[in-house]
Design brief:
The complex is a heterodimer of chains A (674) and B (799). Chain A has 17 helices and 27 strands. In chain A, strand 16 and strand 17 form a beta hairpin. In chain A, helix 4 runs parallel beside helix 6 (377-389), helix 13 packs across helix 14 (562-572) and helix 13 (531-555) packs across helix 17 (625-672). Chain A starts with a strand and ends with a helix. Helix content of chain B is 19%, strand content 33%. Chain B has 14 helices and 51 strands. In chain B, strand 9 (165-172) and strand 10 (177-186) form a beta hairpin. Classes of the chains: A alpha+beta (674), B alpha+beta (799). Chains A and B meet through strand 1, helix 1, strand 2, strand 4 and strand 5 of A and strand 22, strand 28, strand 31 and strand 44 of B. Strand 1 of chain A pairs antiparallel with strand 28 of chain B, so a sheet runs across the interface.
Amino acid sequence: MRRLTAGILLVLALLAGACPARADKATSFTYTLNEKGRHVRTQDAYLPDKTITTLGLAKPSDLFFAADGSLYIADSGNKRVIIYDPETGEVKREIRHQEFSAPTGIFVTEAGRLYVADPAARRVFLFDGEGALVRAYEKPDSPAFNDIRYEPMKVASDAAGNLYIVGEGVYHGVIQLAGSGEFLGYFTVNRTRLTLTQAIQRLLFNREQLSKLVETVPTTFSNVFVDRAGIVYTTTMSTGFNPVKKHRTDGGNMFTSPVIGPEALSDVWVDAQGLIYTCDQTGYLQVYSAMGELIFYFGSSVVNLDVAGLYSRLPALAVDHRGQIWTLDMDKGYLQSFMPTDYARTVYSALGLYEKGRYQESLSAWQEVLRLNQMSVLAHNGIAKAYFHHEDYGKAMEHFRVAGNRPFYSEAFWEVRNAHIQRWLPWAAAGLAALAAARRGLGRLRKKRGAMPPGARIAARLRKVPLICDLSLALEAPRHPVDRFYEVRRKRRGSVLGASILYAVYFVIFMAFQTKKGFIYQFVQVEDMDIKALVAGYFLMIGLFILCNYLVTSINDGDGDLAQCYMIPAYSLAPLMLAFCMVVLLSYALTYGESFLLSIILLSGAVWTLVTLFLALMHVHDYTVKETIRCLVLTVVFMMIFFIMALIVMVMGEKLAEFLRTVYEEVMRNVYGS
Amino acid sequence: MYTAAKRILTLLLCALCCLPAAAAREEAFVPTVRHTKPAPPQVHITEQDLSAYTLLYETSDAEYYWREDRDIIAVLDKANGYVWKTGADIGFPKQVQSRVKEAESAEEKLRLAEPLEKSMNSTYIGVANSLITAEYRDGKTFYAGSAAEKGVDSLLSAIPGEPGRFLLSVDFLELQLRVEVEVACLKKGLRYDIKADGISGPGKSKLTAIWITPFLGASGGEAAYFDPDTGDYGEPRPKYAPPGYAMVPDGSGALIRFQDNQVPFVEYVGDVYGQDPAIRTYYASAASDAVPLRNPLMPVFGIAHGDRQAAFVAYAEEGAEYMSVVMRPEENLRLKYNFCYPRFEYNVEYYKVYNRKGSGYFTMTDEAFRYDVRMVYLFLHGDGSDGSPAADYTGMAQAYRRHLIEEGVLREAQPASPDIPVRLDFILSDMKKSILGHEQVVVTNARQVGEILQQVRDSGVSNITGSLTGWQAGAETLARPDSFRFHRAIGSEGEIARLFREQAAQGATLSLAREYTLLNSRMTSYTNVAAKHINTWYLLHDKSWVFPSAPISEFSYARPDVAASWVREIARRAAPFSTALTVSGITGTLTSSYDRNGVSLTLPDGIRAVQDALSQAGQQLELDLVAPNLYLWQTVHRFLNAPVGGSRHVFETDEVPFLQMVLCGSMEVYGPYCNFSFYTREDVLRMIDYHLYPAFILSYGPSHLLADTLSGDLYSTQYEQYRQLIPEIYGQVNAVLRGVGGYKWVSRFVPQAGLVVNRYEKDGQKALILVNYTPSALSFEGQTVGPQSALCVKEAPRP
């Protein structure tokens, strides 16, 4: 009997159905990133073009376009390298050598010299333009390389003739050899990334225990490429974090922002514009900008189907001078090309224009992209940046907002705000001065006549209403905590009803704080929030605090009763809630650089609330400072215990509910058949 | 006898030597442009030795012969002498060698020495010869042909009193299964009937499928030939393989040319009307990154040999919902043949889940599906100059269309306007998450629809049809499918009614659109509403990968009978507003439903329910159906989102407008939305070539507002972006297609790569539409077509 989880039961819906809104040329959907960094569908960027099944390839593993437009194919299974002419569809030449075992990596220099990496032969071969062997690079005899396996899997070379070799199972880095074969060292190395468990183990284990653990080694490189400018690019397997890197001459990574990609990257190519093309073994192709931003990806893996553009295993890609991507299917032995669509070309053109600083031209190109995809973050960003350079900050803000680009939105907003301030500041200053003068005049007049300020009488009357008096305590208590909570202790002020209303008001403020901040500071959108968790979290935290505090104070001879325990947080939270309100309001007026103001407000509110709470507990329960600290600590501990218990109960409850549901369903199925 | 055999052998050898390996590679690659390839080379029609056959029946157009030992019917087309054999006509090597060995004289040896097939084992030789093949599972899958070497008895007998009709009884002894096939010889064709009652025996529960004449029209093979000089068989070599192709109903139609492939391809399997989700292996499925394969909308396929010389078209009249069209390109299963056949499914293996954890096992249903099969094969000849359908895919389309008209499925219809129509669908709203539940995001309201339509009219486009999607409170995502409550931000009932009234007065046909198949649990309870998998679990379709921010990600399928009742209700409520109704989902998705007692709703039940509901709705409204299956064509007024091309299997060499040729002249057929990767110059040419009308989906507001809804894949809909493109594309397509309004689409051919010629006729007047896909000007019969453009040329009517 086989057991499969429901997750495993999910099968690809390749045979399922409707796809209402698209044309029929592509065989896979193209994705890009939305403003939240999530993958979303976009117009087709590439269409499968030629599928070449007639070359008799066996386990082909690498591709390379030479400067003359010839496509070199490492046909590993047949121990040869094929030189194929994509224009005529003819095989121009085959390069075979008696020492070839399974060539898996190739690189062709501008001068037409061919490097072939063969891990089984443990050599890198160098052939001249006529296909004659120039030399074979064997394992370097440097002492530093003695214990290292030398099974060259992939190879690249720079203009100086230095070799960059990715060796099978070599985690030390990319092997760098001089043209003479001398070992120069490791050009670059991947950093070891520890999991949380490993980090804790490192922290807690002694040397003996650590020695028993499996050694943590860096992830190995899967491929290496050198572009026309001599910049080295690498891909790394088994990591989705920076799987593709663009290296400085010292081996460091030029990408400042992390590149997120698939975990099985197998090849990389860079074209004349600096666009970076990668592919991963599972059948996906990605295109990144020169700065490492994902432009789009497409492709898919497939089992038991021969559909153009879908792969069983994708080991390599290369891009020709027309921008067509050529790929290999290793298992099937196909050569598959992709043609860029008008959409992709327009995106590349816009990117190129922008990078060259031709903002006006890039604007129209981006607008064309936007016509084809109104959700394109790239286009919105590009248009916004073009507007920004034209000092049209209002429009720039509009597009930065759609693109989710907060830092740039903030900059544009600063400009807009600055303009407003400059325009309105004299008027505002004059208005304020006039207001102050009027107030002063009115004050003097009232003083002369002995009249009360307007509204004071109404306020005084309102304060006599018990409920309003209880509610106003929330504002008074933080200012005079000792006096006000003494009144609460004496039951002169405060009520359960008043506290309940305050909790309701706080809930509204809390939700507003979570969901209604200005664009710059509202990092998570409502549709991405777990609203239920927020609501439950709010009431659970307050409820748990009240309950635990009551239990702790009961066993610690606190004077307060349950009603007072219920009221204490309500009358202490006002500063924090006030801070929330201020943050929400100010988030519409402040830029990124001014976020410290919001932090200060939040911190002040939190500290003020804590102090108020502390004093409230102390005075209501008639505790000393030490007792109050103990009470607070115990309350937190109790809350944690309750929380853990609640989790256990919930898990067990779920299991029980599932068991009962299963029994019920089985019974229903057996009795009624449905 | 010896002389005759020698003559045939010589003829065959000559053919082999003279032909440039007809099945050899034509190109070094399969190009993207699969719709502009010239016809295949000519097939050599040679005299066939039918001495091992007995004459069964003869009509004015054909002679029918029977070979008892191999269960093969040979059909001699009197028009051109071409012989079609229902089987490969191959001897079992052991039997042939034994006969040769026992022969007494050299002449006798030569007469008996049939070529020895080298690419097949005896099981497959049995299958290749057989009239029917049983596919069954007994731990693993087995095949048994009616003419298997052993273990099967078959007998053909005439049905008394019914000339030209015969009964083939096949006993699969090991399987303990008996299948009775009624064979009818038509004027120039064959018909096979396999009744549900005609399948009997304990082996019925193991039977998974029946294949009918899998090797009819097959091409290829590798055999060793007897050498009279040495008295032995020589080295195997390729047999003469007739050039040609199989036409499969993949999307709009695809040709798979017979080729000598270098790699073992996986076969093409087209599940007619799509695979029933209720009998898939698993009850759950998920949206994937790969574009779904196109489902055949009609149960038809065909094979052509040569360039308009000989062909057949085959279609199911009964049992289509259980049918698949299977095409096995050469090297599939390592066989050296290209062959294509219909497969009728009787049982499936599925994953039986018995608890919520998903534990389960693979099993089959206790009872086979019960239905009747009727397959008809019509043989075609020539180029169509004698008035009969030509022996190519266009002739197949004509013959099939003729059949559908005779059956009342299609009817001849004339266009209401000389200008072609344009389809403008509007997305009005959809749901996204909000603080308190959900929020309806409205991107277009009724007033804005009116404004947009007026602007389109002002740009010179007058013949407009369209629909409104997301008009309900709760939109498509949360409104129950039969809910008829307009969302107030879109417009009141009065405003909507006024919109429809005003548009109708100006000649535009607007309708309310709704998808009726995919359900979610927020929309309605599943009880007695959603279809259940054969393992009795509700079907599940997960879209979370495509719509990560959408409010709902898990869906199920409505039972067709329930969905049909919803259509009825909506049609009743919509009738006072509009003259049309747009229906999707239910039109192209067919599902059965199961409970503990087995099937609770069969596919034929589902078809009937949907047909009845749409027929009823069609009495009061014009029906605009999204990619409907054949069983709904009778009710269709407008065919929306017609597929263009196939699923792009690597071995598909040509994409052809077979579907459009069948439908042309009966209904308006619209292409996919131009918004989504269907807007380039080549796409416009394809629209003209495929006789499709342009379609757009529009909104007033920007589509990024819908990003967090289930309409998040409509990434470009704002009218402002399409203000110029709509009249531009419409103008280009209309300028050519208006010239053939009301004409019959007679043929389509490719005189040279990149140039397509479509012939139309009306009352003796002929018109040509020339489509040039290449970047240089091309000429045909004195007419020059500019680069990447199309031209309509009319010939004067004959006196």
